[in-house]
Every structure is written in C-alpha cells, then in structure tokens.
Design goal:
313 residues; Rossmann fold; eight-stranded mixed sheet; globular
C-alpha cells in the first residue's frame, strides 16, 4: 500500500514512479523527482535520498526530494528491499549488505538516465540510511559526495549498546529464534507502531521510543508501509557486520554530517566525523531533535545542502 506522502508535491515539481534491479536481482521501487522546467537537453546533477531505518520513500525522502528538485537536482528516492513497494521475501527482513547495495543500485539507475550527469551523483542518508550511504561510498567511487542527517550506524546501535554478558544473551536468544522461525515457516516480525495513526503516546515508554512514536505512529509521519522494527532474527546480521570501518577511504570525496543539537543520536555523527578524513563538515542545527531532520522545513538546512552538492558534484 502506498499513495500517502507526508508532504504535498510542489506545483513546480514532477514525480514519477520508477523501478530497477539491484545486483541480487531484486526489483527496487523508487520515485524520480524533477523540476517541471527541466531542460531535458541538459545533463543535471543527481541525488539519492535514503529513508530512515524502517522508513519508506513517502516519508522523509519525499520532503527532501520535493525541495531539492526545485534547486536543480534530479532526485531519486526508494524503498529498501523487503520494505514498502520494493521486492523481497519475507517482508521486513533487514540486511546490512543489501541495504548498502541498494544505494549503489540507485547510482546504476541514475547513470543510465539521459538527463543525469553520471559524474555528478551524490547521496543523502537520513537516520539509518546515513550509515548505509556512507558505507556504500566507502567502496563505490561513483558517489561523489555524501551528506547525512541524524545519522545512525545500525551496526553500532545494536551490539555497541551491550556489555559482554548482554551480547551473549542476545546472540543465544536470536540463534534459538532461528529454529522457531524455521519450524513456523516464516520469521517472527513484531511491528513497533500501529497500523493506523494515533494521537497518544503509550505511558512509560523509553524517551527515544517516545520520540520515534511521535513521528511514525502519529499523523505527522505515519505510513502503513513503515510500522517499525524488522524480523527478530535480523539483529544477528548487524552483530556480524561493521558498516563504517573504512569511512576514511571516502576522502578526497567530501562528507557533510548534519545533526540536531538535542538529537539523542548525535554521538554517531561525532564518531564518524572523528574517523573520517578531510574534506568533512559537521553542522549542528539549533534546537532540533533527531526526528526534526526527517520533515521539518524550518530545521532541515536545504540552503546548505544545495551549496554543498553544487560545490562538490
């Protein structure tokens, strides 16, 4: 189910559905945004915008694409494999390898479009896609510049928050769950958010969960294809996969890390900034929490994003 975008399409922007395959043969569903006054005889710079972890193209990515298409960029948004309108069974499986690959698959697609200058392709990764996009850029040199917003490194977010005892318990739990899933014929999936938007926050929830609830569970950002969480055993993959060991190898291609000053996730971007080589920039947005960089037009620094990519593509 699609059709619901969290922002209205600007009257000067055109959006069309596209599809293409990644290197595993899975069909990716995307949207391609262009300005209506686009000169189709001229090749333009292009951007790929990746959704927050568990999100879909109709949420944060459409907000970014709607704005950046007006500023002269061709913009591609997409649903990750096993998510939204993209192919992949069983549904809601999370795969760090495939999620990184899908950014390079987007570069494949854009490089074949007559209106795109294939030497001027950049990426914006929101939340978990920040880590996936940086990981793709570590090896895919066709990606000429990377910006992240409220970046999460999902390979750290799991095991990095556990001590040795908790990590062993988690491995045991998820390993045993594989037998249960095999016997049932399908992996366990427990969504985090309701099927329909609500106007309340559950009592006693963790402050970080409360923040995500305010976006994903309420009218502000709710989408039926983005109910949160992934199959339970997906967590094993992230315990065995490090996304950003080679982030310094992105240099001399530039990195821009954008965070809210009140974001619970700020330390992820700080760690990447410390590890990355020049050229790199760190931009802190005043009075902004993590989810504000998903959709708040008054907080997302579109002027800076335009400047960064026009200078570096």
């Amino acid at each position: 189910m699609s059709g619901k975008y969290i922002c209205e399409l600007d009257e000067n922007v055109e959006r069309k559905s596209v599809s293409y395959k990644n290197r595993y043969g899975l069909t990716i569903a995307g949207d391609l945004y262009t300005s209506k006054d686009l000169d189709e005889n001229q090749k333009c710079p292009a951007l790929i915008v990746g959704a927050p972890y568990g999100g879909v193209k109709e949420q944060g990515p459409c907000v970014y694409a709607n704005q950046l298409a007006q500023r002269g960029f061709i913009v591609l948004t997409f649903d990750q494999s096993f998510m939204g309108e993209s192919e992949g069974e069983p549904r809601n499986v999370s795969s760090p390898d495939i999620f990184v690959e899908n950014f390079s698959a987007g570069v494949d697609f854009l490089g074949m479009q007559n209106i795109v200058d294939r030497e001027k392709i950049g990426i914006i990764g929101i939340c978990g896609s920040g880590g996936f996009s940086l990981s793709a850029a570590q090896v895919d040199t066709r990606i000429k510049a990377v910006a992240t917003a409220s970046m999460y490194d999902m390979s750290v977010a799991g095991r990095g928050m556990m001590n040795e005892e908790l990590l062993k318990m988690a491995k045991d739990q998820f390993s045993q769950k594989r037998w249960e899933d095999f016997e049932n014929g399908t992996p366990e999936y427990i969504p985090s958010f309701p099927e329909e938007p609500v106007d309340f926050i559950p009592e006693g929830v963790d402050p970080v969960i409360e923040e995500f609830w305010r976006f994903y569970a309420m009218e502000r950002g709710h989408h039926p294809n983005a109910r949160g969480n992934f199959t339970t055993t997906s967590q094993l993959a992230f315990m065995n996969f490090r996304l950003l060991d080679y982030v310094d190898e992105i240099s001399p291609r530039p990195i821009l890390l954008i965070v809210g000053d009140r974001a619970h996730s700020k330390f992820f971007s700080e760690a990447v900034f410390a590890q990355a080589a020049e050229p790199k920039e760190f931009l802190e947005i005043e009075d902004a929490e993590h989810i504000d960089l998903y959709d708040r037009l008054d907080k997302i620094p579109f002027d800076k994003l335009e400047e960064f990519f026009k200078q570096n593509l």
